[in-house]
């Protein structure tokens, strides 16, 4: 009996010691993250709010910086941020909620609910709106000032950009019509439906749909020159959130609080590689969400959600002073949480070069990059592939594909061991229509990064 008692005591002591080490380890990681976030703030590359949960518990939660460019009011965790495209999750979930209730079918045509629209509405299914395969052009942001303006533009639209289902174009008219269909079916405004059927069930008590500029807890977005953005959002239906409410929303997706696993999967997994789903992107195994990732921007607001349910880990970053580095910050946070070496975030070189993009071609921009790299500076990031990759994608977004290819090719020479840069180069060649070189670079990307499911899928497609 005495020996058994000693064994029990030793076992309990081991548990206490292990628990103590685990708690201390978590505390150390929180301290390292805090130091990194403060350093980023001092460098002027992060002003915003952060929430990090690991192993099911909130490990770190911080508000750092200012609510607006006057630098008079400090951010708090109660402040709300616009989250850009992440707010599109609310209409995607709302559509699928109505589907589960039997109030619509994804194959239903837009014309069934909005018969006043031109004949093209009879070709577009709700599924096309969710997958951004409708063929609709984007909102005319320069002239549209309201929902009524945008509906009038659609009323006069005579032709789609492509036949529904044959191509992909990520734009906000798909989102706009989703919201109008929800209103038609429910007899409520989209904003009211979101508040009653999504925010309330998830106990998101501080989120607001289209908060007014007079909202004292709504942050103001501003640029590096200290100029505030005008808070005029042409089309309605954008939910602004606090850290706590954003975390509740993320948890509601992975725990299937609002939708079934099967329905969640249909708006989590993109319809094809290099595209967005209703929930941004991610994947499931069986009935478990394995990953949910989504980023969004609006003016100088920028937000990133990275959810890793198997690790019970969530990273939320929100800023009202966009620097284009949230993925870099997340990479450092993930490395710290995993006990791995990490890179201290630095000022992106992109900011120094982006103003010259419209004037210079890729060759001249590369020469400027090389000049800057020779200047001694510990603040700017020349050690990461992300700066040039961002410039390459900026060229790609302007349909300057040849310039994008030159930038990506240069980046592969600087970072030959990175699967990501070869993936980007493959994407540029794919957009140019050079399938041979696209396939070559996707294969190289997969060799360097066997976990690149995007490259794997495209290799199969191109191989056919």
Automatic annotation (TrEMBL):
Keywords assigned by UniProt, alphabetized: Hydrolase, Repeat, TPR repeat
Name of the protein described by the UniProt record: Serine hydrolase
GO terms assigned for molecular function: hydrolase activity
Pfam families named among the record's database cross-references: Beta-lactamase, TPR_2
The organism of origin for this protein: Terrimonas rubra
Keyword Magnesium: no
Residue ranges of domain Beta-lactamase-related in the record: 45-329
Ranges for the TPR repeats: 419-452
């Amino acid at each position: 009996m005495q020996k058994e008692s000693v064994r029990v005591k030793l076992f309990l002591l081991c548990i206490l010691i292990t628990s103590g080490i685990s708690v201390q380890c978590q505390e150390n990681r929180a301290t390292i993250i805090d130091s990194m976030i403060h350093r980023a703030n001092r460098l002027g590359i992060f002003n915003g709010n952060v929430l990090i949960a690991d192993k099911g518990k909130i490990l770190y939660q911080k508000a750092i910086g200012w609510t607006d460019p006057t630098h008079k009011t400090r951010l708090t965790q109660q402040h709300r941020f616009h989250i850009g495209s992440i707010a599109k999750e609310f209409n995607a979930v709302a559509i699928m909620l109505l589907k589960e209730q039997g109030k619509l079918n994804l194959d239903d045509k837009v014309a069934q609910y909005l018969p006043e629209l031109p004949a093209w509405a009879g070709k577009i299914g709700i599924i096309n709106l969710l997958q951004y395969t409708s063929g609709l052009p984007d909102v005319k942001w320069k002239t549209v000032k309201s929902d009524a303006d945008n509906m009038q533009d659609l009323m006069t639209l005579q032709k789609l950009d492509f036949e529904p289902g044959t191509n992909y174009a990520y734009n906000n008219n798909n989102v706009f019509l989703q919201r109008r269909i929800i209103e038609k079916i429910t007899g409520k405004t989209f904003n009211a439906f979101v508040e009653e059927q999504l925010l309330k069930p998830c106990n998101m008590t501080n989120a607001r749909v289209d908060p007014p500029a007079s909202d004292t807890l709504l942050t103001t977005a501003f640029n590096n020159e200290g100029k505030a953005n005008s808070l005029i959002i042409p089309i309605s239906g954008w939910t602004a959130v606090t850290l706590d409410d954003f975390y509740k929303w993320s948890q509601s997706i992975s725990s299937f609080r609002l939708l079934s696993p099967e329905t969640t999967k249909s708006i989590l997994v993109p319809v094809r590689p290099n595209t967005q789903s209703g929930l941004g992107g991610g994947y499931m195994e069986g009935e478990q969400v394995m990953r949910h990732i989504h980023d969004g921007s609006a003016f100088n607001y920028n937000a990133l959600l990275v959810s890793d349910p198997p690790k019970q880990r969530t990273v939320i970053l929100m800023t009202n002073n966009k620097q284009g580095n949230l993925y870099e910050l997340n990479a450092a946070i993930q490395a710290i949480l995993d006990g791995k070496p990490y890179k201290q975030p630095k000022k992106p070189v992109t900011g120094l070069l982006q103003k010259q993009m419209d004037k210079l071609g890729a060759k001249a921009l590369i020469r400027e990059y090389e000049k800057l790299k020779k200047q001694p500076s510990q603040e700017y990031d020349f050690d990461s592939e992300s700066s040039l990759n961002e410039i390459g994608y900026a060229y790609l977004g302007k349909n300057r594909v040849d310039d994008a290819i030159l930038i990506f090719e240069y980046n592969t020479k600087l970072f030959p061991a990175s699967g990501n840069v070869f993936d980007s180069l493959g994407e540029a060649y794919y957009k140019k229509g050079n399938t041979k070189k696209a396939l070559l670079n996707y294969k190289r990307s997969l060799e360097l990064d066997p976990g690149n499911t995007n490259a794997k899928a495209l290799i199969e497609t191109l191989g056919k």
